[in-house]
Amino acid sequence: MSEEREPPPLPGAAQTVFPEPQDAEDLFVSAASAMESPEAACLSAEDISPSSNGPRDDDPDDLFAEATEEVSLDSPERQPILSDGPSPAITPVTPVMISPRVDVFDRSPDQDEDEEENRDTFDIQISVSDPEKVGDGMNAYMVYKVTTKTSLSIFSRDEVCVKRRFSDFLGLYSKLASKYMHMGYIVPPAPEKSIVGMTKVKVGKEDLSSVEFVEKRRSALERYLLRTVKHPALLKDPDVLQFLESSELPRAVSTQALSGAGILRMVNKAADAVNKMTIKMNESDAWFEEKQQQFENLDVQLRKLHASVESLVCHRKELSVNTASFAKSAAMLGNSEDHTALSRALSQLAEVEEKIDQLHQDQSYADFYLISELLGDYVRLITAVKGVFDQRMKAWAKWQDAQVMLQRKREAEAKLQYANKPDKLQQATDEIREWEGKVQQGERDFEQISKNIRREVGRFEKDRVKDFRVVIIKYLESLVHTQQQLIKYWEAFLPEAKAIA
Amino acid sequence: MKQTFCVIFKKESSIIAVDSISCGPHCLMNVDLQTDATLQVDISDALSERDKVKFTVHTKSTLPNFKQNEFSVVRQHEEFIWLHDSFVENEEYAGYIIPPAPPRPDFDASREKLQKLGEGEGSMTKEEFTKMKQELEAEYLAIFKKTVAMHEVFLCRVAAHPVLRKDLNFHVFLEYNQDLSVRGKNKKEKLEDFFKNVVKSADGVLVAGVKDVDDFFEHEKTFLLEYHNRVKEASAKSDRKIRSHKNAADDINRIASTLYTLGTQDSTDLCKFFLKVSELFEKTRKIEARVAADEDLKLADLLKYYLRESQAAKDLLYRRGRALVDYENANKALDKARAKNKDVLQAETTQQVCCQKFEKISESAKQELIDFKTRRVAAFRKNLVELAELELKHAKGNLQLLQSCLGVLKGDT
Asked: What ranges does the record list as Acidic residues composition bias (chain A) (predicted)?
C-alpha cells in the first residue's frame, strides 16, 4: 500500500523562508533538571520491531527525493517509498537540487526473537516537510509541517497534520527529558540550535547555503521525531501525542536561553557537573563499569570519524567545483585548437569532466546526508546515554545520603533515649521511620534505574547496529553507483580520443 | 626501454629510504622520437642527493664524430640549462622552435613534508606514522620520476631535430665526461636576464602588432597567442582539481584508520563490519590516489609541457617578426640612402643581410610550426587515450572492490 502524499508545491509557489525567532542561543540543549515525577512510569517494553521501509530511490536525477520515513511492525510488507515530495524549494528562482536524501530508518525485515511476542500490527509514519517562513526580519521563524500517519489506537485520527516551529521540538525534548531521564530512559536529543544558520535565513538571504541549512534542519527534525516514537515508552507519552496531534501548542518559552527556565537550566547543569566530580560511586556491578568505558571510547572515535567525514564532504565539494572550472577551461582550449579532430575531442573531454563534477557533487551530498549526519546524531545520542549513567549515579548518591541520614537519626534517637526526653523521643522515632522509608525507596529507585538502563542500553545497541549497518551499506551502494557512472562516461569518451587523426 | 633508478633520500647524513623502481619509456610528450638509430639519447639512471639531482645521460650513436658507439656521462640540471641557452643565443637557430628547457627539479615541498612528519612522529600511532611515511616517499618518488622524464624529453627532442642534433655543444654535452664547469648564473647575470626579458616582451608586443603579409604566419600568430593563454588556464585548473582529489583521498585514509579503531573496540556485531569497511576504504583510497597521480601525469603534465612548447613557438614567431621589422627598416634605410645618395653600398649590404635572414627564418619556421602541430596532435591523442584507459581501469577496480565488499556485508546480515 503506497501512501499518497499531497503533490509537492511547485517551485513557483512562493514559499519564502522565514527564519526562526531569535531565541538567544540556548547553550544547553538538554534540559535535564531533575524534577521528581511522582509516577515511576515504567511502561512495559512494547518494543517496536524495526521493520522494512521501502527502498529509497537513489536515482541521482531524482531532484526532489521525499523525506518520509516509515516505521512499521509488519515486516514482510515492504512499504514502497512514497512519491516525490517537495524539496525546500524556497525561491521561485532556483529549484534546489538536493541530492537523494537517504532513508536512515530503512530496516531490513528482520525480527528479533524477543520482540516476537509483541506483534501488534501497528505502524506509524512521520514526516517533516514544507518549511515556511513566518513573519519578518529578526522576529521571523520557520514553521514545519509535521504529518503523522498511523493506525495506532492511541492516536485519535489516522492522519494528522500540524504546524510546528523549531522551539516546539526543543520544548518537547525538554519535557521528555525531565520526565524520563532520571528513570534511566535514553531520550533522543533534539537537533541543535544554530545562530549563524538561522540568522542568514532570517535576513532573507535565499542563497544555496541557507536553503541547505533549512533542508539539513528539516531532515534532522524528522530523524529526531522518528527516534522518539521508536521508543516504546515515549510513543505513549501524552506530550508526544499532543505534539503530534493538537493543532495549537503552547509556546515553549522555556527553551529560550535567557528566560527564567533557561537560567535555571544553566545553574542545574553547573551543579550537575560539580556533583559528578564529587560523587565517588562504589560500582558493584561490573557491567556498568564496562559499558561506561565502552561508551567513552565510542564517543571519542565517533567524534574523530565525524570530523574526518566532514572534511571529506568539504574536499569533495571543492573537487566538484574545481572539476567544473577545469571543464570550462578544457572547452575553451578545445575552441582555440585548430586541428578539428583534436578540438572535438577536447570538447568531449570538457563534457565528460562536467558530468563528473556533477557526480562528485552528488557523492558529497551522499557523504553528508548518509554518514555525516548519522555520526552527528550518534555523537549526541551518546551524550544522552552518558547522561543516563550519570542519573544512576545521582540515584545512588541519594540512596547513600538517605542511609547516612537514617544513621544520624538513629544516633540522635539513642542520645535522646539516654537523655530521657520522652516527647522528643517520639519525634525522633517518627523521623527514623520516615528515613527508613526513604532508604528503602532510594534502594528501590536505584535498582529500578539500573534495570531500566540495562534494558535501554540493550535496545540502544541493537538500534545502533542496525542503523550503522543500513547506512553504511547504502553509502557503499552510492559509491558503487558513482563508479558505474564514471565507467560509462569514460567508455563513451575513449573512442572520441582514439578518433583523433 | 627500461630504466632503473636508485633513489637515495639523504637527511643530514642518515639515509631515510632506498628505493628501486623501473620506468617505462619516458617520451610521453613526443611520439616517434626514438626510431632514429643514428643517434639515440636517454637518461638511464638518476641519483637524488640532498640538493641536486645527477642524471646519467646515455648515448648510442653510429655517427662518425663520436669516439665510441655507446657512452654515458653524468649531468646536472644547470648543464641542461646551459645547453638550452646556447641554442637560444645562437643566431643560426633563430628559425627553429628551440625545445623548451626542463623545469628545475623541485623537491622542496616534499622534503618539507617529510621533515614535518619526522618532527610529529611522537604524536601519532606507529601505524599512522608508517603509512604517512610511505605516502610521502611515494610522492617524492613520483616527483623524481617526473623530473627525469622532463629532462629526457628535452634531450630526445634535440636528438630528433635534423639541425640541432648536429650542434657542437650538444655533442660536447653528450660526450665530454668531465664536469662542464657550467655554473649557475650569479645575481648580476640574473638581473641582466631579467631586464633582457622585459625589453624582449615590450619588443614582442611591438613586433606582434605588425601585420604579416603571409596568411599562414598571420594565422599562426593569432592562434598561438590564444592557444598559449588557454593552455595556461587549463594547466592551472587541472592542477587545482588534482590537488582536491588528493585531499579527498587523504580524508578517506583517515576515515579508514578510525573505522579500524572502531572495529577493534566495538562490542557488538558491528566490529566485523567496521573492520571490513576499513579494509575496503584502505584499498579504494590507494586507487583514488593513483587516479590523481595518473591524471597528473597524463593531463596536467601534458598541458604544462605544451605551455612551454607553445611559448617556444611564440618565441620563434617573435624572432621572425623581429627579422621582418629589421628587413622593412633596412628597406626604408636603403631607399633613404639612395635618395640622398649616401652610404648606398652599406645600406644595400645591410638590406641584403636582413632579407636573407628573414627568408631563412621564414622557410624553416613554416616547417617547424607544421611539425609542432603534428607533434601536438599526436601527443594529445596518446595521452588522452591513455588517460581514458587508466580512468576506466581504476574505476573498474574500485567497482569490483566495492561490489565484493558489499556482497560480504550483505551476506552477513
From this structure: 58-72
Task: Tell me how far apart the alpha carbons of residues A467 and A463 are, in angstroms, rounded to a whole number.
Answer: 6
If contacts are CB pairs under 8 Å, which of residues 471-490 in chain A contact chain B?
472-473, 476-477, 479-480, 483-484, 486-487, 490
Rounded to an integer, what distance in angstroms lies between the CA atom of residue A133 and that of residue B75? 72
- pLDDT exceeds 90 at position A303: yes
Q: What is the pLDDT of residues A396-437, one digit of tens each?
A: 889 999 999 889 888 888 888 887 777 778 888 888 888 899
| Higher per-residue confidence, A99 vs B168 | B168
Nearest one of A3, A6, A131 to A69, comparing CA atoms: A3
How far is Cα A96 from Cα B409, in angstroms, rounded to an integer? 34
**What pLDDT is attached to residue A256?**
61
Can you say how many angstroms the Cα of residue A460 is from the centroid of all Cα atoms in its chain? 14
What is the side-by-side strand order in the sheet with A141-150?
Answer: A69-72, A123-134, A141-150, A159-165
Tell me if chain A has a CB within 8 Å of the CB of B270.
yes
- Separation of first and last alpha carbons in chain B: 52
Could you tell me the three cell numbers for A384? 544522552
Q: How far is A455 from chain B (nearest CA, A)?
A: 15
Nearest CA distance, B392 vs chain A (angstrom): 6
Q: For residue A167, give the nearest of A149, A193, A148, A189 by alpha carbon.
A: A193
- Closest to A17 measured CA to CA, from A96, A84, A83: A96
Contacts of A335 in chain B (CB under 8 A): 230
**Chain B, nearest residue to A323 by Cα:** B241
Structural Rg of chain B based on CA atoms: 27
Chain B nearest C-alpha distance from A210 (Å): 25
- The bridge status of strand B3-11 relative to strand A141-150 is unpaired
In a 3-state reduction of DSSP, which class is residue A120? coil
Closest partner CB to A483 (pick from B269, B387, B399): B399
Cell of A168: 516546539
In the numeric block, which cell numbers belong to residue B35? 626510431
Residues of A in contact with B221 (CB under 8 A): none
Cα A451–A453–A458 angle (5° rounding)? 105
Interface predicted TM-score (ipTM) of this complex, two decimals? 0.83
